[in-house]
Amino acid sequence: MAKVAGVTVDTDHWIGGERVGSAAAFTDLSPIDERPVAEVARGGAAEAEAAVTAAARAFPAWSRTSREERARILHAIADGVDKRLEELAQVETADNGALIRSHRRGVMPRVAHNFRFFADWLLRLGHEDFETRGHRNHVSWDPAGVCALITPWNAPLMLATWKVAPALAAGNTVVLKPAEWSPLTASLLADIAAEAGLPDGVLNVVQGYGEEVGAPLVAHPDVRRISFTGSVPTARSIAAAAAPNLTPLSLELGGKSPLLVFADADLDLAADLAVEQYDNAGQVCLAATRLLVDASVAAEFTERLLDRVGRLVQGDPRDEATDIGPQIHRRHFERVDGFVRRAAAAGARTLAGGGPNTDLGGLYYRPTLFTDVPEGAEILAEEVFGPVLTLQTFTTEEQAVAMANATRYGLAATVATGDPERAARVSGRLVAGTVWVNCFFVRDLRAPFGGSRESGVGREGGDWSFDFYCDLKNTVTAP
Ligand code: NAD
């Protein structure tokens, strides 16, 4: 048990409807002051095994529960999230250092929405019928079984519930493994689900390090789906672990997304979109970290962007006035700093930031903007996952598209232009799971979400989530 921001959080695993401890524990540190927030159960192979067993045992009954009953319980979970919204917001901010104001007004309401959305989507899922020579082909969505859901630290509960909600709605049982840097709100979710009447063993939460508890979980032969959000190197290990069992995988990975600013764009809007890329202190997979700007408006755009960067308030994420909080962890902070130092050493020119915020100390890193980056520099290719943007210029649309696509990622792209024809032309040619035109970060859960190339495999959202979490079956009946 831990008391975090005044909220009691159980730091044991949640397996088969019971709190289960481990002999070992790990220390969860606060990104705000690097002090311990909680001692959390450090699971391993035994806990992974116990959780999969509990989920497998709960599967037959849950998978046969009527759609209406599953939807009712998911709605009750959403109500529970709403009721504990402030507590969830406070705990997540203490745990991962993201802004309290976005947790209160954006993230946690959307967490509740995720459950309501997938509950309602379940009720409208069709049963398709086709006829062949008098035979009836009846297509149904059968739940797949035990799902292992592995999530990262940058938006812990939001990303977990994009998986948990459709997996449960589809009639599966779940083992959720949150990231070790932000383990706490997953535990609160287990409490909320139990209070909402979710049967024991349907949702299990195991805590611990990826290599210790995550690895045996994804290698388990009784796991029928693995859904992972995180980094490319981890995705590779998970895919290798899944291969012997041929476990179907959904992978939501990193990005190095572009923001294309054309000469015909509203430059204030374009600068607003650019400064938004520092949200969550840059720890956003979708962030458009490569600003590609028409050379004819680059000076004007840069001036407007720097003005906005200069007005960003960096500080304690618990303060409503703060725009940029800390990096999640000392190790991550140093990784970000390494990228910045190497970019500067390679000859990139620093227009803003360029190092830690020494006024604040701790894990606060200044919003950084580089230009004149030499071709082939690491900073143009690798995902930094911190508040670091690069600015490059182009002279033709052709060149802009080529630069945008010159990455091994393909998660998202943003286009700022005042010309609808150009918008259609350019978005058609961009390699990206999501293209935003004159906007950013708008997500409709009915639409597919995911990445191309190394940004991922598969799509989440609407029918795509149910496609993944179900075994589709065709029953052919003779006349
Ligand atoms: P990570 O890959 O280090 O860890 C993610 C999760 O995987 C954690 O829970 C970790 O414990 C677990 N894990 C680690 N090794 C494992 C193993 N061998 N087997 C099973 N599980 C294991 O990623 P991170 O640092 O937590 O998150 C940042 C990354 O996530 C960035 O690359 C970011 O772009 C990406 N991300 C992608 C999306 C998206 O939707 N595409 C969203 C958010 C973050």
Task: Describe this structure as you would to a colleague.
Helices cover 40% and strands 22% of the residues. The protein is α/β, with parallel strands linked by helices. The protein has two domains: 2-254 and 455-475, Aldehyde Dehydrogenase, Chain A, domain 1 (3-Layer(aba) Sandwich); 258-437, Aldehyde Dehydrogenase, Chain A, domain 2 (3-Layer(aba) Sandwich), CATH 3.40.309.10. The strands form six sheets. Strands 16-17-18-15-14-19-20 form a seven-stranded mixed β-sheet, with helices on both faces. β10 (173-177), α6 and β11 (203-205) form a beta-alpha-beta unit. The longest helix is centred in the first third of the chain and has 25 residues, at 100-124. The model has no long low-confidence stretch (mean pLDDT 98). Bound molecules: nicotinamide-adenine-dinucleotide. The site of nicotinamide-adenine-dinucleotide has 31 residues, from α7 and α8. The active site is at residue 252. Belongs to the aldehyde dehydrogenase family. Keywords: Oxidoreductase. This is 5-carboxymethyl-2-hydroxymuconic-semialdehyde dehydrogenase.
